[in-house]
Amino acid sequence: MGLFSIIPQSHCAIVERLGKFSRIQNAGLHFRLPLIEQRKQFVGSEWMYAGEPCAHKRDGHRAYSLIELTDQRLNTSIRVYHTRDNVEVRVDAVIFWRIVNPKLAVYAVDDVILSMIDVALNSLRSNIGAMTLDQVLSERASLTDKVTAELIATSAKWGIALQKVEIQELNVDAQTQAAMLKQMEAERERRAAISIAEGQSQSTLIQAEAEKKATILRAEGVSRSQELIAAADALYLEKICQTEMVSREEAFQILLAQKYIEGFSVISQNAADKVFLPNSPSGLLVDGK
Fold this sequence. Notes:
The protein has about 290 residues and is α+β, with helices and mostly antiparallel strands. It has helices at about 100-105, 110-130, 135-140, 140-155, 175-245, 250-265, and strands spanning about 5, 10-15, 20-25, 30, 35-40, 40-45, 50, 55-60, 60-65, 65-70, 70-75, 80, 90-100, 160-170. The protein has three domains: about 5-70, no CATH class; about 70-175, 2-Layer Sandwich (Tetrahydropterin Synthase, Chain A); about 230-289, no CATH class. About 15% of the residues are buried.
């Protein structure tokens, strides 16, 4: 490394003087005192450190000297957890984070990446272990919010701004998955049966309401028809009394005889029926009234 160095955009480097922290070099051209100053070198965590590795190696691993300052994402490996009802689930999470204090990220923890992964997985283990399988599946967003809230305080001590922890995959074993499918099928059948029963009940109610309205309408029609017939008969009696110069009793006998004759068309419609008729219209009245 020469006396002058260039730090690329969105990166920084830590300079140590005589083995102690001296300063942070941000993007741009920088000068280094020879012999007594050197960049801090980091080993292994390629998610955190960027740029070309140094020419030499430490402990058999590549050494880096640039720290990435942009938003980053970190995928965790699939881990097996057990829910409160002792169901085995396989979870894969992704962590969104960014370094805001390079000094803390380097000196406050041995390996900030591995530490952050361990804290996230431990938080997932404790939260999933306190929930049933149904809760884990239905409250997935709430679970990620809890894990994120627990990691924010811890990551802040390491100079990390944690943005979000999301569960990418959440799988169960084949036996549990088959049981879940049966449960969902039974639930669908139950809902279908309820829907059919509600539909039939609604149809019955609608049909009964329609029959009720039809009966009322028919009764009103008959009542109205009888009112009109009665009014017409009364008007007919008045006309007979006025034009024929007869008494009301005689006019009534005339109307009754007419009704008697008209009734033949109704009572004699079926040729197989035997009908007995009185000899005169007056036979329809009791005591001649």
